[in-house]
TrEMBL record, chain A:
Alphabetically ordered keywords of this record: ATP-binding, Cell cycle, Cell division, Cytoplasm, Kinase, Nucleotide-binding, Phosphoprotein, Serine/threonine-protein kinase, Transferase
Catalysed transformations (reactions): L-threonyl-[protein] + ATP = O-phospho-L-threonyl-[protein] + ADP + H(+); L-seryl-[protein] + ATP = O-phospho-L-seryl-[protein] + ADP + H(+)
Protein name listed in UniProt: Cyclin-dependent kinase 4
Residues that, per the record, bind ATP: K42
Family to which the UniProt record says this protein belongs: Belongs to the protein kinase superfamily. CMGC Ser/Thr protein kinase family. CDC2/CDKX subfamily.
Domain Protein kinase: 13-299
Pfam families with a match to the protein in the record: Pkinase (PF00069)
SUPFAM superfamilies according to UniProt: Protein kinase-like (PK-like)
UniProt-listed PROSITE patterns: PROTEIN_KINASE_ATP (PS00107), PROTEIN_KINASE_DOM (PS50011), PROTEIN_KINASE_ST (PS00108)
UniProtKB/TrEMBL annotation, chain B:
Protein species of origin: Cyprinodon variegatus (Sheepshead minnow)
Protein family: Belongs to the cyclin family.
Complex formation: Interacts with the CDK1 protein kinase to form a serine/threonine kinase holoenzyme complex also known as maturation promoting factor (MPF). The cyclin subunit imparts substrate specificity to the complex.
Function: Essential for the control of the cell cycle at the G2/M (mitosis) transition.
Domain named Cyclin C-terminal: residues: 232-354
Record's keyword annotation contains Heme: no
Protein name as it appears in the record: Cyclin P
Keyword Oxidoreductase appears in the UniProt entry: no
Keywords from the UniProt entry: Cyclin
Segments forming domain Cyclin-like: 139-223, 236-323
Taxonomic placement: Eukaryota, Metazoa, Chordata, Craniata, Vertebrata
Length: 306, 365
């Protein structure tokens, strides 16, 4: 009682427009009345019991705030966090992020006719992987990487958004119907096997291909359909790579052979194709890491030229 | 609004003693029940959190930038004896279980950098409370912390959160204890695997506050602190330096005692964890006057080289701690004195050398 809050989200941020339904709740564009700048407000509704805010929420948000200290250029800024009570069972946690007008999806759609240049794609990829390496070295996985949550500023700077949220949401989320696109999901997630940071590398591979194609690489309509489309490109994996802890069986899929990736991504150069295949490795253990990907000849090649 | 009489101020803090029995209802922190089967991700995730290594481009390469004030010495030393100091620090961090070998140096640089964040520039935490009032509250937190058998890190984090909350929030005298318990509760949520339930905390405070009030304060503190509840405790610096300096068990216990006393001192809130730890260890050595070996002296020189450039600050802290230790036994706020008078802590708080510790410093400086 008689406690005056130092900063109150509802007063400081004035909603301007709804900018996304999102699987996990509504996202608003708002104006920071103090600075006049635009921000993105993300509300997370967490279920609270008699012991207050869940431990996982406290720790996850603290981790995001701690990472914020490093000021990584390829990660979206988390400016403010606020918690307000909605009911005895529910607390709304508002995360205030910097607002970037454009995502990679729009950026790709807006690119004039032949699409992005090879150099531009390489630059975007390097930034994307730098951001990802930073998240992974802090034990944060994104889990839902897709063109919609990769932001591109007007200066061409890539900023990853919505990382770490998946975990905050999934732990104690008040139930909302979750509709998440399957297109960037790796086989281990589709098969409901165990997974870790390699999930993000798979998604990055899909996005890498999409930068050339300007349409998604695998557009499945169900989990099984998505897996089928993946195997049409990378081939059915050998039996020893099939995870043992899953119900979906390998024999349910036709014994397809891998096709050259250039059949699907004709514009990609040789080193790019090699890197892409290392990102689209079926076995997550064999998939390249973000740090190693940055060391790949695909990127070194460019340095030599410049 | 000035402080009211001492009795009125202290009344609620005394009630902890009435309700000691009711808080052993600890419940395990729910292991994050993720809806997706995340089997590969190891559970040491949260161990990695405090000391998560950071080895991505650029940020670990420029140590000069990490120490904007007071710690300039580290850089020059780093240039002089880089390999030896680095090796010692890496070995110590690994031995203490604070890092694995590969990332140890990055972890150390990260510790040095992190402590700069959230440091409090001045000692004026709140216009409404005196240092004496704050000391009574911290003393109470220390007692509850001990009662709940929390880890040391949790205590340092709780007091750190308290200091920042006092800055950010306007709290009435009547709600000071409420703020204190919430800081401890939040620290526990961050650090502990067993948590007391809120009902238990209420009965601990003789039901002075309702559960609803506790949960409301939790949200207010989290908002005011912007959910920034990561902290590098001075204790980790202390253990690190003690390990590099090959200090004896008695010296380490004495330093831990002095470091915990610093929590009660309002003047100490402005100092960095690395400085508080260095000062506590220096003073502990001077008080105990153990006979030294050439190897011991060399090790000590290497450890103290981290503080090159901040000796005047260290001396100031040592004076504050010496004064605090000399009067600790006679104070009302004596939880720390009692804690460190036990056999397990080698009864360091009762060491006769502490009575004249300030005089000792005068002679040296």
């Amino acid at each position: 009682m008689n406690v005056i809050m130092a900063n109150c989200t509802s007063v400081q941020y004035e909603p301007v427009a709804e900018i996304g339904g999102g699987a996990y709740g509504t996202v608003y564009k708002a104006r920071d009345t103090e600075s006049g700048k635009f921000v993105a407000l993300k509300n997370v509704r967490v279920q609270t019991d008699q012991n207050g805010l869940p431990v996982s929420t406290v720790r996850e948000v603290a981790l995001l705030k701690r990472m914020e200290q490093f000021d990584h250029p390829n990660v979206v800024r988390l400016m403010d966090v606020c918690a307000t009570q909605r009911s005895d069972q529910e607390t709304k946690v508002t995360l205030v992020f910097e607002h970037v007008d454009q995502d990679l999806k729009t950026y790709l759609a807006k690119a004039p006719a032949p699409g992005l240049s090879a150099g531009r794609i390489k630059d975007l990829m390097r930034q994307l992987l730098s951001g990802l390496a930073f998240l992974h070295s802090n034990h944060v996985m994104h889990r839902d990487l897709k063109p919609e949550n990769i932001l591109v500023t007007s200066q061409g700077q890539v900023k990853l958004a919505d990382f770490g949220l998946a975990k905050i949401y999934s732990c104690h989320m008040a139930l909302t119907p979750v509709v998440v696109t399957l297109w960037y999901r790796p086989p281990e997630v589709l098969l409901q096997s165990s997974y870790a940071t390699p999930v993000d590398i798979w998604s990055t591979g899909c996005i890498f291909a999409e930068m050339f194609r300007r349409i998604p690489l695998f557009c499945g309509e169900s989990e099984m359909d998505q897996l089928g489309k993946i195997f049409e490109v990378i081939g059915l994996p050998p039996p020893e790579e099939w995870p043992t802890d899953v119900t979906v069986q390998r024999k349910n899929f036709p014994p397809l052979k891998a096709r050259p990736i250039t059949d699907f991504v004709p514009e990609i150069d040789e080193q790019g194709a090699k890197l892409l295949m290392e990102m689209l490795a079926f076995d997550p253990v064999k998939r390249i890491s973000a740090l190693s990907a940055l060391e790949h000849p695909y990127f070194q090649d460019e340095e030599k030229k410049s | 609004e000035k402080c009211t009489s001492a009795d009125e101020r202290r009344a609620p803090l005394r009630t902890w003693a009435n309700a000691c029995g009711s808080i052993d209802r600890c419940q395990p922190v729910e292991e994050e029940s993720r809806t997706a089967p995340v089997k590969l991700e190891p559970e040491h995730r949260w161990v990695g959190l405090l000391f998560s290594s950071y080895a991505v481009e650029g940020c670990v390469e420029a140590p000069v930038l990490l120490y904007p004030h007071g710690l300039q010495g580290l850089h020059s030393l780093h240039a002089l004896v880089p390999s030896l100091l680095r090796l010692e620090v890496e070995t110590a961090l690994e031995k203490l279980g604070l890092s694995d070998r590969t990332y140890a140096w990055e972890v150390f640089l990260d510790m040095m950098k992190t402590q700069m964040r959230n440091s409090l520039p001045s000692a004026d935490l709140s216009r409404h409370f005196t240092d004496a009032t704050r000391a009574i509250l911290v003393d109470w937190i220390i007692r509850v912390h001990e009662l709940l058998q929390f880890q040391e890190e949790t205590l340092y984090l709780a007091v750190h959160l308290l200091n920042r909350s006092l800055r950010q929030l306007k709290v009435t005298t009547a709600n000071l204890q409420l703020l204190g318990i919430i800081c401890l509760f939040l620290a526990a949520k961050k650090e502990e695997s067993l948590l007391p339930d809120v009902a238990g905390l209420c009965s601990l405070m003789d039901h002075t506050y309702t559960k609803r009030q506790l949960l409301r304060m939790e949200r207010k503190v989290l908002c005011a602190l912007n959910f920034e509840v990561s902290h590098c405790p001075p204790l980790h610096f202390l253990l690190l330096f003690a390990s590099v300096a090959r200090c004896s068990a008695t010296v380490v216990w004495m330093a831990r005692y002095l470091l915990e006393l610093s929590l009660l001192e309002g003047q100490c809130v402005v100092f960095l964890p690395v400085q508080l730890a260095g000062a506590a260890l220096c003073l502990a050595r001077q008080v105990l006057q153990e006979c030294s070996t050439p190897e011991g002296e060399a090790a000590w020189c290497l450890a103290s080289s981290i503080h090159v450039g901040s000796e005047p600050t260290l001396l100031r802290i040592m004076h504050i701690l010496a004064g605090a230790a000399a009067k600790a036994s006679t104070q009302e706020t004596c939880a720390t004195f009692i804690k460190f008078s036990s056999a397990e802590t080698l009864q360091v708080s009762r060491h006769p050398g502490l009575i004249n510790a300030a005089g000792l410093l005068g002679a040296c400086s």
